[in-house]
């Protein structure tokens, strides 16, 4: 594959690449009969995620979860689910060949969140990352992590889902629930769509609705400064933020912390955050 672009173009995007593959990219400049030296770099695309997550066989205390296995070879799959009333997290790990699991011993008449996709809790994981890092996901699922933009796009494209954000600072807790949540494809820069706020934290995500994702090495639609670099995170920045949950952990200066302005302002970094989504067909969470 090759592409010729004008000399004033500073970036180009290659699409329709295969997942989990190594690529060698080379670039050179040309003008009339002159040509520069070739510069080469290597890149690896993110792994293909599981798809077609389906819930079935729902009883009073159990439900079945199935998925389509990707071509990427994994050592296993991990299904995380959270009881919305208590906030208690559970997970099941299954083998790489498995495409079905039954979640049992659930509480009768309760709602469960199936997927946690972000957690901040101790500052052990660096969230000032590249576009490819955020695309593939990073961190420790038992502690701090980002699940991955490509997987988030695929999962939120399967059907209507809602978003819940839980935050704790000392003895204070707050939550924000959004009735509708989705992320566009990488071709559309993982643009955020979010609406339908209820909760106790304030509607800080409304400011970011319709914005593309930005990372330290890529800001698709800057409105002034390079927000991801200025605030050292990856997020759907605008100019720049009202929420910045992937900011610098524990930083209470330069507005670079883990921030939800409508709850704690810009100068207070929130010690514990979780972002979760679930199918919208479940009733909205109303517990703080």
Keyword list:
mainly beta, Gamma Fibrinogen, Chain A, domain 1, 3-stranded antiparallel beta sheet, 19 strands, 8% helix, 35% strand, disordered C terminus, extracellular matrix
Give a verbal description of the structure.
Strands 12-13-11-19-14-15-16 form a seven-stranded antiparallel β-sheet. It is mainly beta and 288 residues long. It has a single domain, classed as Alpha-Beta Complex (Gamma Fibrinogen, Chain A, domain 1). 8% of the residues lie in helices and 35% in strands. The chain has four helices and 19 strands.
Show the helix and strand layout.
Layout: E1 22-27, E2 30-31, E3 34-35, E4 39-44, E5 51-56, E6 63-68, E7 76-83, E8 89-95, E9 100-103, E10 112-113, E11 115-120, H1 131-136, E12 138-139, E13 145-146, H2 149-156, E14 161-169, E15 172-183, E16 192-199, H3 227-230, E17 243-244, E18 259-260, H4 261-264, E19 272-279
Antiparallel strand pairs: 1-4, 2-3, 5-6, 6-9, 7-8, 7-10, 11-13, 11-19, 12-13, 14-15, 14-19, 15-16, 17-18
The name of the CATH topology is: Gamma Fibrinogen, Chain A, domain 1
Radius of gyration, taken over Cα atoms and rounded to an integer in Å: 20 Å
> What CATH architecture would you give?
Alpha-Beta Complex
- For the largest beta sheet, what order do the strands appear in spatially? 12-13-11-19-14-15-16
- Poorly predicted sequence stretches spanning 5 or more consecutive residues: 283-288
Give the distance, in angstroms, between the N- and C-terminal Cα atoms: 52 Å
Counting helices, strands and paired strands, the structural category is: mainly beta
Profile the largest sheet.
Answer: 7 strands, antiparallel
Oligomer: single chain
The CATH first-level class comes to Alpha Beta
Q: Give the mean pLDDT.
A: 85
- Please bin the fraction of helical residues: under 10%
Number of domains as seen in the coordinates: 1
Shape: globular
């Amino acid at each position: 594959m090759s592409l010729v672009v004008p000399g004033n173009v500073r970036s180009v995007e290659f699409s329709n690449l295969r997942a989990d593959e190594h690529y060698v990219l080379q670039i050179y400049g040309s003008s009339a009969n002159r040509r520069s030296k070739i510069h080469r770099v290597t890149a690896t695309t993110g792994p293909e995620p599981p798809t077609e997550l389906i819930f079935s066989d729902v009883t009073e205390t159990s439900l079945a979860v199935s998925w389509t296995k990707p071509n990427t070879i994994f050592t296993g799959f991990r299904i995380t689910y959270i009881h919305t009333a208590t906030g208690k997290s559970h997970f099941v790990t299954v083998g790489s060949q498995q495409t079905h699991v039954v979640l049992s011993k659930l509480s009768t008449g309760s709602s469960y969140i199936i997927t946690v996709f972000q957690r901040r809790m101790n500052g052990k994981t660096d969230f000032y990352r590249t576009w490819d890092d955020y695309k593939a996901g990073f961190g420790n699922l038992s502690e701090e992590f980002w699940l991955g933009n490509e997987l988030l796009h695929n999962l939120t494209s399967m059907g209507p889902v809602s978003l819940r954000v839980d935050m704790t600072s000392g003895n204070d807790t707050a939550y924000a629930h959004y009735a509708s949540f989705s992320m566009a494809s990488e071709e559309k820069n993982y643009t955020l769509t979010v609406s339908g706020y209820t909760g106790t934290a304030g509607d800080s995500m409304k400011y970011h609705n319709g914005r593309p994702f930005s990372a330290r090495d890529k800001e698709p639609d800057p409105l002034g400064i390079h927000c991801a670099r200025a605030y050292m995170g990856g997020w759907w920045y605008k100019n720049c933020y009202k929420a910045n949950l992937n900011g610098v952990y524990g930083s209470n200066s330069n507005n670079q912390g883990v921030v939800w302005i409508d709850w704690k302002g810009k100068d207070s970094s929130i010690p514990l955050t979780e972002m979760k989504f679930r199918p919208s067909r479940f009733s909205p969470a109303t517990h703080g």
